Amino acid sequence: MRAVTLDSVPAAPAVTDVDTPQPEAGELLVKVAASSINGFDTAVAAGYVQGMMEHRFPLVVGKDFAGTVEALGEGVDGFTVGQPVFGVVMKPFLGTGSLAQYVTVSAGYGVAPIPDGLAVQDAGSLGLAGAAALDSLDAVGLADGETVLISGATGGVGALAVQLAAARGARVIATARPGEEADFVTGLADVDLVDYTVELDKQVLALVPEGVDAVLHLAGDGRRLAGLLRPGGRIASTLGLTPDAVEGDLTVHSIMADPNAATLTVLGDQVASGALRVPVTVTYSLEKAPDAFGAFGAGTLGKIAVTCS
Ligand SMILES: NC(=O)c1ccc[n+]([C@@H]2O[C@H](COP(=O)([O-])OP(=O)(O)OC[C@H]3O[C@@H](n4cnc5c(N)ncnc54)[C@H](OP(=O)(O)O)[C@@H]3O)[C@@H](O)[C@H]2O)c1
Fold this sequence. Notes:
The chain is an alpha/beta fold. It folds into 2 domains: 2-126 and 278-307, Medium-chain alcohol dehydrogenases, catalytic domain (Quinone Oxidoreductase, Chain A, domain 1); 129-254, Rossmann fold (3-Layer(aba) Sandwich), CATH 3.40.50. The protein has helices spanning 39-45, 120-123, 127-140, 156-167, 180-186, 200-207, 222-226, 261-272, 289-297; strands at residues 2-6, 14-17, 27-36, 54-60, 64-72, 84-88, 93-96, 102-106, 111-113, 147-151, 171-175, 192-194, 212-217, 229-237, 251-254, 280-285, 303-307. Strands 3, 5, 6, 8, 9, 16 and 17 form a 7-stranded mixed β-sheet that branches. Helix 7 (222-226) links the parallel strand 13 (212-217) and strand 14. Helix 3 packs across helix 4. The longest helix has 14 residues, at 127-140. The radius of gyration is 19 Å and the shape is globular. The structure holds NADP nicotinamide-adenine-dinucleotide phosphate (NAP). NADP nicotinamide-adenine-dinucleotide phosphate is lined by residues 38-40, 128-129, 132, 151-152, 154-158, 175, 177, 196, 218-220, 238-239, 255-257, 299.
């Protein structure tokens, strides 16, 4: 099969021919229709994950997947061949990723059926970013009418979090540079915009002088963002901010996205119902996927999708 691979790290990913994986007991073989680029994929290529996870070369990169079940490993219940599924590759090692024509995944974690109304192209960009957005919002526990600052609102996680937070009745303050970025974010939901490149603190406190109730730290300086919380405020960080890094009466939630089937189902159903839009702004073919890594690093808005078949 064709796949986006690394022969070593750090290295630029390339599209090569590798053996099609076979499902082990408890696994599904999925024929991948769509995937997307996540920061994790670029981190793997840059060598940042070395020492944290086993790397099996040639290493097929990719976390998100959507497609159809091609074959069932021994002992798999609850899925059928031909069924549309989506999710996130959650193996404890790196090597059999989803930027490929086929991927094997555990049937027990990180996969759910694609509901009617969720396009497979969107499903391929939803899993990891959606779980990170939902888990971050659940962690800060927004009440109706509370104010949340979303730092990194222009990214894949942020663009989903903006919509989910607004749907929960929160007042959303979202970071975006003026122009295309600002237009993109205001197209997602009713938000107050702040430009993170000039005196962010001043702009936020002009909107909410007492400080915000919650922050989603998806980009930028977490300590500085925590300083914009009111006493008793909460911050969720996908970037590893820890409680010892902040001072005062604040709660820090360090998020490790958990794309379990229940979370994937919630996300899929919200998109299918029209309540949530998957913010894909550009799509690459599998053969051009290495270019998508460059585009991600250069700051493409929302999600970069990859069509795999
Ligand atoms: N812990 C987990 O489980 C988990 C899961 C998913 C993602 N993540 C991480 O969460 C982060 C967000 O993910 P993502 O997929 O949304 O990444 P992304 O698509 O790269 O989004 C980041 C966004 O933040 C903007 N940005 C850059 N510097 C900023 C600043 N100082 N203040 C405000 N915005 C700024 C970028 O826009 P510009 O074009 O303006 O630079 C970009 O649009 C990434 O670091 C990712 O690795 C972690």
